[in-house]
Amino acid sequence: MKVFALSDPHLSFGVPNKSMDRFGAEWIGHPQKIEKNWRAIVSPQDVVIVPGDISWAKKLPDVMPDLEWLHSLPGTKIILQGNHDYWWPSATLLDQELPTSLRFVQNNHVKIGPFFFFGTRLWDTKEYSLFDLIAWDPKKGEIPGMKSDQDLETQEKLYDREIQRLKLSIATLPQGEPGIRIGLTHYPPLDHLLTPSRASKLLEETGAQHVVFGHLHSVKPEWSGKAFGKLNGVEYHLTACDYIDFTPKLICES
What we know:
The chain is α/β, with parallel strands linked by helices.
């Protein structure tokens, strides 16, 4: 069994007016690129983590074509809510409506074979910065994430809430049971230089061997394939689909 990850597919089969084509030539026809690459390397017994920004849909009926598309691809999929996943409903509805090959992480953990998957979305925080990693065009205005003092206060409240949700997910992990623990976040849990953070320390304490996340697009060319890495025994993987050339990244295998 292999575990792959691919984040931020930003699908729009149910809301076709939200195509990603306007974000650059690499995004044109990107679902077809993902499907071709996915089918070439993922087997039915494998797992693919999709840690957020799954769809542009805002309502559950509109996201179903995207979820069915994921379901049609090989493997079991572990999904997490991203900041653009406005369609994401309650855990009860997810249990009822998700196609059978999709599992979700939300204040819980999922066990498949020897793997334990857990985590939370996280949020922006002043605790660490990723601005130097992103190639931002100043003609487009302010850098995303730059906040006024009042907005920063709200941002930190949201981040603190996400830290509590991470603790809730961790608390569901069985104590002493052997296995490979893989953390999921949507926002990066630390910066690209691997400066320790509250989130990274919590992830370390669980015995996580890998942490996968996305959220970051337009990474500077000089950081291609070099951002993040290993800190204190935990391997941090940026898996935004444009960063990994729309190809699921192999995280580990048993």
